[in-house]
Amino acid sequence: MPAPLLSPYHILYVDDEEKALHYFKEIFGDEYTIHIANNAMDGYRMLQQYGAQIGLLLTDQRMPGPSGVELMEHARKLNPNLVRILVTAYTDYQAAVDAVNSGRCFRYLHKPWDPDELGMIIRHALDYYHALIERERLLAEKAETVRNMLSADKVSGLGILAEGLNHHLRNALTVVRAFIDLAPMKLMEEIGGAHPRDPSFWIDVQNQAQSQLERIQSMLARLAEASHSKRLDRTDPCHLSSVINEMLEMFSAQMKEKNLKVEVSVDPGLPPVMVNGARFRQMWRLIFMEELTHLSPGDSIHISAKVRQDGKGQNHLVMYVRDTGMWESADKPVNLFDPFYTRSRKPDDFGVNMMACYVTMHLHGGTAEARHLEPRGLELEFSLPVETNPEPKKEEDFFRSLLSHEQRWKMRDEMVAA
Asked: Has UniProt tagged this entry with the keyword Phosphoprotein (predicted)?
């Protein structure tokens, strides 16, 4: 049974001397995954093919065609984290020094290289590359943590706002509604019981006012419900395909009336997820209501889902809703989850429904995102962790890991200085 490789990252060695390539692969091929090329162009194509999987590039300086320094410069643009080592003859000393000083390479080696020394350098180089990758991952993870904290603050703030609006505005709206209901009767009393010349005007005014009052009260109620800031209990097993079928049946008449085409690609074999059943179904009702609101006759909707694993090994049920609606360029997808967002084509339409979907996912420990599609359309992505109680990553773990990688950076600087 072969021994495990020392690093998951690959090495690319580029040299026009076939013996040097063969010798390198013979020595290190059992410890690392090695790729070889005898010119810069072939080496660059390998870098494109394997991407970030290649962590170390060793290249000779003088080769037919582009030089090693030129290859390193292009490689740096392709993958800035790639560790680059220039292998030179003594006559290329100044080119090597310039390459190091300009930041184009990690260090340089003279030919012929010593296998033991080169083995140590390779281990340090790949360890450094791993530190770079981990550093980026940790920073991205921290950025996601900050983003979630901001989302929690936003949800909490909306909850306080909604409670205040409900408390202070509902009573005032009740009084205004009572006045509007009594207005036609009081008008007839004022004119002695005679019918006004244009009764339809007063009926329309009353209907419009009542409609707007109902809309405001409904928005307040949905805002209050949507921004409830406590984490939801996920105790209800739910099959996504069943929920989608339920929504299709519920909105079938409206979909047919508007001639909307709906395609569902949800595998019935997807495992059930634990959710808050009422809020999860409400979220899908609101999604369908939003699609009915902003899509035009003849547009289509495609719903799909899959299980995806994140960088921490945690499984997520990722649900997609893609439509072919015509969204104006001024309608930025990020604004879709703003409760007071109005679309450019429908200035009276607020985004409370989508904010409710955003909050529902947040309180399930998930995320909600929106993005434009080309040439037209919108994609909604809802990611829900399958595990109901994922253990949050502790702050001290993050900083301990970050300090460890900072020490690797220091080791690298000391090694280069030596």
From this structure: yes
